[in-house]
Specification:
about 110 residues; OB fold (Dihydrolipoamide Acetyltransferase, E2P); 6 strands; globular
Length: about 110
């Protein structure tokens, strides 16, 4: 397990499901850039209610930054090529909306507009 901070764009809309125990979870796919310029697909799952709500408020193509436990993996595509992928158990989400809200709160507390 790797403690990671990743950023990218949602690939499709997040989806909520229910586990065998009746607890909810949310899954998403995020395209992230690797250091060499390649794009990797990051499979995301969230269990915390606030994190799920933040993910579910987003849509395909939205920018998002997430932190959590990252596991690198490989898969074989339809052509038989082996490709890297990432699995992230998401513990926190940050979106441009959150940043704007935090800036506004700081400015309001300092008496600025």
């Amino acid at each position: 397990m790797i403690d990671a901070l990743t950023a990218g764009r949602l690939y499709g809309a997040p989806k909520q499901g229910t586990g065998k125990t009746g607890d909810s979870y949310t899954t998403a796919k995020v395209k992230v850039m690797a250091g060499n310029g390649d794009t990797l697909l990051c499979n995301v799952i969230a269990f915390d209610e606030k994190v799920q709500a933040a993910l579910l408020a987003l849509d395909d193509g939205d920018s998002v930054a997430m932190s959590g436990s990252l596991t690198p993996k490989v898969y074989q595509d339809k052509a038989g090529d082996v490709r890297p992928t990432l699995d992230l158990v998401c513990h926190a989400v940050l979106t441009p909306y959150n940043v704007q809200r935090k800036h506004q709160a700081v400015n309001d507390s300092n008496g600025r507009d």
